[in-house]
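Newbie here. two chains, one complex. Structure please?
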Amino acid sequence: MGSGYAKEQYKERFGQGAPVWSGEKGGECVAGGVKRYGEYEVRETAGGGYELSKGGMVVGSFASGRIDPDRALFPLSRGTWLEVSDKGLREILASQKAMMGGLIASDGGSHFYYRYDQKKDSYSSQYKTSFASTDRELIDLFGGLFEAVYGQAPHLYQYPNRDFTEAYVSSKEVFYDLNDFGIKTGPFQFHVPREHLDDAGKRAYLTGFFSGDGTISRCGNQFEIRIYSKHKEGLEEMKQILEDLGFHPNEVHTGVKKRGKRIEIRHNFSIPAGEHRRFIKEIGSYKPSHRRVFKEMTED
Amino acid sequence: MVAECIRGRSYTGITHPQSACTLRSLCPIGGKAGPPPVAFLETKSKVSQRVGFPKLAPEVDLTDERSWFWRYGAEFDAIFTPLWQLLVNEDMLSEASRSGLHDYLGFTGRILLSTVMPDELIDKLDREQYFRLIKDLRPDATMVPDNYTYVDMPLYQSWSQTIRLVTLANDFLDLDIPVIGLVKGAIAQQYVWALRKQVEMGYVSFALPSRELFKQSLLDGAMMSARYVFERSRPDAELLFYGLAYPVRRVKASYSNLSWFIEANRAHIFGNGRLHDIADPEISSEKCDCEACRGRTPTELVDLQSNHDEYVRTLAHHNLLDLKKVLSGEKHG
């Protein structure tokens, strides 16, 4: 092997090699000699990087990494980490990417479509990954996360006569990357990539999703935290990751709402009142109206 | 890359973060403590035996017996076996070393050993280890050890590796089996110099690892350099494209690849040298009279899916036969 571009070789073998600007921080390097995780061994090299080996043979080399007692993490491209633990290898989403995934799953989209070019009389594939919101704070958050993960800033589009802004990127690479994790499986449908999320990733994903599709209602002195969606399977998966984190969310309910002539079926579940403070502390939200109510709830 | 580095651009896994740059020993700015250049030997010369490549010498996956096509009746004169698969599997290596590759695989044709392998394995093997492996495995021919020459790395690295290739090619003249030279380099001067040296040593059979070069549109440059040297110094040289499943026009060459098996695993089949999904309506109702399909259409082959191994074997057998036809020029897509 070893012909052509090294960058491409790294990309193909380890998912590394995409250019980034200096100053972006990867994982924290910890000196620690050789560490064993199940069948895998992680060794710190003289050059300051790490070598991952299995059965005495090197299966990967990384310039940086993070060695924890129960796992080792190595940065791959596009906001993913390679996690090595006693259970083996898996790719996990960095918190930034997980939060971005949550935002897209709630109020965003990632899809492709064909566009007809009349001059050429042919169709071409178009890709679009977007997030729309009435809150500028959420749009800025999405933009920041997107830039940290993919190194490019999304375009902003203000719909005429409508009060929301859309941040979008037309990129085949981004579409396929998110598609691999099943972030958005169709219109109003999503999948929680639970197998690619560690605890920090699960929290970040929930924060992203709650910022988009979460509601806090008030009835007298009582507050209710709910998460809504039209996609029941996705909501069940959300509930599952909350349970993984030690929460005890209530069952998913289905409600029917009439919007003009349209009838909308929406599913939701709520967080028990006893876990509200913990939810606010660990999950929280970036939506300004949520933050105001959260402040009020914690001051009580 | 140095210029980009000075401007502040860096690459994950290579120069990022800067404290762990993998190239700092080669850096002309800060790498004063870099290693000395590789020592270079005077080359010997010997009339090297010609391998006599068949038009297609399929590569086999040593870890997957479904690719051992001779077991289901396909006949080929020679195969390529990747050495790296043995190196990462100790049990397989010890068994193959004990019995030799012929007995291990049960293949009666010629077994050609491919040394094309991941970079970290290239760095770990030295001359003695290669010789010991070749002595134990007993292939009918071997490639000279692979190297890595990247076009986006400092030339110091690719020149060091090119010199290493020539040095080891010189050492491999001591073997008593035919040896296949390698066409490798990052720039035309490296291709030409390494090839000229190997031609001077008496090499006549050459392999050009093509997979990455083809994907990155760099194959033409490598081919032109090879043609330049062969036309002037070795007109009788034979060339094999290693890792390529498409015929290169206007070049008389042989081919070796594992695409026939990799694509069969993905339910893709070759038809006139072009790759199709088995459900592709363009070919799904076309009967195929090859030995593997025996008049069945791809739609009928899908019915074999209940026995997955048999399904993959049939598709792989079909792919092999189609590739053989196309690469031999019997029909063109």
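Moderator note: The two ends of chain B are 41 Å apart (CA to CA). Residues 31-40 of chain B have pLDDT under 50 and may be disordered. Thread marked as resolved.
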